[in-house]
Amino acid sequence: MRLQNGTFVLVSDAAKALLLQNRGDEHQMDLRVLEALSEDSLPNREQAADKPGRFATPDGGRAATEATDWQEVGEDRFLAEVAARTLKAVSGQSPALLVVAADPRSLGKLRPRLVDSGSIVLVAEINRDFVHQTIPQIESALIEA
Q1: pTM for the complete prediction?
Q2: What is the mean pLDDT of each run of 10 residues along the chain (145 residues)?
Q3: What does each C-alpha distance from 123 to 70, 82, 97, 126, 129 come to in angstroms?
Q4: Which phi and psi angles does 48 have, rounded to 5°?
C-alpha cells in the first residue's frame, strides 16, 4: 500500500492506540507519532462492587440480572476517546485521509465513530493488531498490505 503525504494512520486495540501521520511520500513512507493513548483497566473482580442483582419475576420466583462486564465498558470508553481524539487531530485537513489498523473487535467499534463524521476519507481498514510493534514494523506491514 502506498500512502500520500499527510495520510493519517490509526493503530489501535482496546487498550492502546497510536495516531501516526505519513510525512514521507508515496514511494518512501515516514510515519511519525502524533499521539499515543493507553488505558490501564483493572480486572472485573476489582471493579465490581457486589454480586449481580436479583429481582422478582411475574410468577413469584426470583431471577438474577446479568453482571456488568466492566472490562468491556472500559474498552468502549477508551475506543470512543480514541475516535474523538483522532477526529480532533485530523480536523485541520478536509477531507483527511485515514488508514485504520486494529483487531476485529476494536475495528468494528471504531468504524462507525470515525466514518459518520464526514470529515474523514477511510483509505483502508486493516484487520490486524499492530499496536505493539515498532514504527518500522508498522511501516513494513502497511507497505505489504
Answers
A1: 0.80
A2: 91 92 89 89 60 75 73 86 91 85 92 80 90 91 87
A3: 33, 18, 6, 10, 17
A4: -75, 135
